[in-house]
Amino acid sequence: MFTRLRSDIQCILERDPAARSAWEVLTCYPGLHALVLHRLAHGCWIRGFKWLGRFISHLARWFTGIEIHPGAKIGQQVFFDHAMGVVVGETAEIGDGCTIYQGVTLGGTSLYKGTKRHPTLGRNVVVSAGAKVLGGFVVGDGAKIGSNAVVIKPVPAGATAVGIPARIIPSKSGESADVTAPADKFAAYGITLEDDPLSQAMKGLIDNASSHEHQIALLWQAIEKVSSSQRGEDCVPLDAARTECFEAEKLTQLVGK
User: Fold this and answer.
1) How many domains are contained in the chain?
2) pTM, entire model
3) Is 13 exposed, middle or buried (0-12, 13-18, 19+ CB in 10 A)?
C-alpha cells in the first residue's frame, strides 16, 4: 500500500512542475486523494459490498470533484492533474502511467448492463482537458487525446486524436509507445502544433505553392537565356514572373511553426 502511494507521489512530482514536495502532493492534490479513495471503494466493490463502494466513491466525488465509479480499473502511476469534473465510468480501464486532465469523461454509449460500455486506455495515454472518450473501445499505448476532442472510435497506439468528432493522426514512428524511445520530458496536455491536422495541411499547401513559384521562375529565366542567345533579343513577356515573391515563411508563421 505505502509502496504504491510513494510511486503515485513520485509520478506527480515528475509530471507537475508546480509540485514542490512530497508532503504538498500528499496533502494538497485531489487527484491523489481520489485515487486512494477509489482503491478503497474498488476493494469493497469486488468483494460484493456494492453499496459501500458506491458510497465511498460518492464521498470522494464530494471531497475531490472527481467521480470514479468503484467498478473502474485503474493501473499504477496514474495522474489526475487538476481533474475537477473528471468522470470515469463503471467498465472503464486506465492503464499504467496515464495522465488525465480536468473535465475529461470516460463514458459509455450503451445502456445494456453487464457489457463493456466504457473505454480502455493503454499505458502512458494522455487525455487532455475537456476530452470525451465515449464507447467500449481501446485507446492504444502512448496515444494522445487533444483538448475538447470527442473520441468515438479506437485510437491506435502512439496516435493522436483531435477535433469533434476526433480525427486520428497516426504515429510518426508507426510503432507502439512501449517499443519506441521515450520522450526526454513529459509533454503537458500531450498536444503540440505538430498534432494539428489543419495546420499541417496549410503548411503543406504553402510549401507546395512556394515550390511551384520557384519552378516557374526558373523556367522563365531559362527561356530568357535561350531566346537571348538565339535571336539576340528578349521575347519573354514583361510581366513574366522571373523572380520569386511568395512569402512562404511569413505565411508559415501565421499558421504556426
Assistant:
1) 2
2) 0.69
3) middle
